[in-house]
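Worked example 4.2. Below are the chains of a multi-component assembly; read each line carefully before continuing.
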Amino acid sequence: MSDFIAWMQACQSRMESVLADTLPPVHIAPQRLHEAMRYAVLDGGKRVRPLLAFAAGEVTGGTPDRVQFAAAAVELIHAYSLVHDDMPAMDDDALRRGKPTVHVEFDEATALLVGDALQSLAFDVLAAQPLADDPAMQLTMLHLLAQAAGSRGMAGGQAIDLASVGKALDLAELEFMHIHKTGALIRASVLLGAHCGTPDAATLAALDHYAKCIGLAFQVVDDVLDAEAPTATLGKTAGKDASHNKPTYVSLLGAARAREFAQELRSDAHAALAGLAAPAPHLRALADFVVERAF
Amino acid sequence: MSDFIAWMQACQSRMESVLADTLPPVHIAPQRLHEAMRYAVLDGGKRVRPLLAFAAGEVTGGTPDRVQFAAAAVELIHAYSLVHDDMPAMDDDALRRGKPTVHVEFDEATALLVGDALQSLAFDVLAAQPLADDPAMQLTMLHLLAQAAGSRGMAGGQAIDLASVGKALDLAELEFMHIHKTGALIRASVLLGAHCGTPDAATLAALDHYAKCIGLAFQVVDDVLDAEAPTATLGKTAGKDASHNKPTYVSLLGAARAREFAQELRSDAHAALAGLAAPAPHLRALADFVVERAF
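Applying the procedure described above to all two chains together yields the following structure tokens:
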């Protein structure tokens, strides 16, 4: 496990450095927008999506020098979505990763533009950086990220989430929402990392199944934490889902069964990795890492 | 001139059809989001940016079958920017193209997601459609659009615009704002259209200068119309700039000198085209079309 922690810290440190270099510097106009973009992205979170990309790259021979740009693109999309989700028209949250959200620290108009500009930047990174020997493969990666971010991916999941407030979803409907809202981008993280190497179809299929399990597990664990952890530990306002009458895995299954479900998803994720030609120790450890947050 | 009108109508009709096919159908979930995306994009505007792309493609041998996707991508970015700009946190406008704006017709959260999803879709189109023989050229086009949309392009221009409300800008500062806010995407329209063919460096430089003149002329004319046309003609709330104490070409130059300035920019645009190896009758007519709205 200590090897895993050292690997994780090395990836996080590399990610921070790539993101810092990718974001426009604050001395370039419009300075306040650039300051707010850096505030939204840097020094934040565990970088789970980039970690998944780096770990998937290891399976297909995608080197960190390439994967880092795919990882940065995914993290920029994730960061933009947090900024927009926190806005008053959406979740109206004042706290994120222990800091005031962007619209609180700056203002609503700036938060809107920060999200918009981060999304453009994500696609810019994928288009402009050398990610693959074959530019056609890079176009495939751009298509993959655009699908994951768009109305049939993350943005669509957010729309389904908004429409579900106060409604009695069943498990299948809740899963449908999360496959879009968080699952699509987690899947893109794994697949983009894999595309930086030379993946065959069987490997992509196995990684896709792994990513689906991890994506759901991530959400189940988030629901458990939201229901039980104090705000200070969480770094964001706790108990928001219950207070907004949003359906969650805890409200549908109870906390104990939700934890069990997360364990089952971890086992499924591990099983998907077992079929790979190459070992995938870091993907395996990441499945543990995602689930063990809840224990 | 009647040839030009027939050409324009053919392009507009092709554009409408490509956009209708590109936007997700309303029977696919999330249905309300897809309905709102179609509401925001279809049956709207003169499609000036697509027209510029088609006309620029003619100069470099970019066929309409290819240019139509580049044009759609640019129009989707433009449409997303209108949806977000109209929101209460930004310009707070209730009317656009004679219809209620998206956040009025639907709601603010939906408007936010519509803009976000339209931006993803724009990059998806550029990545997934066959736009160039060489995929590396297509990556260049994606980079071009991402730069035009991002914090050093359109989104940045919007930030500069917001920061300028109530301030006394001089002409150079006003131009700096508009080169970003509207100029960047108009430039991208022309250059993306040209990249669908086989442009040489001299042609790109001439088209770039043409696009800069047209982009500024477009804004100068917009300022004249905003100051003088009644709301019914404009299809959006007139006189908003003056009532928000925003600097405009009319407030800085007066309406008569602003009109003269638009004419000078048209002459500059025509001069840029005169140096091209191939004739560019539609780019020339578009320069007239943009400026003559004000007369």
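Take a moment to check your reading of the output against the notes. Chain B has 15 helices and two strands. Chain B has a mean pLDDT of 92.
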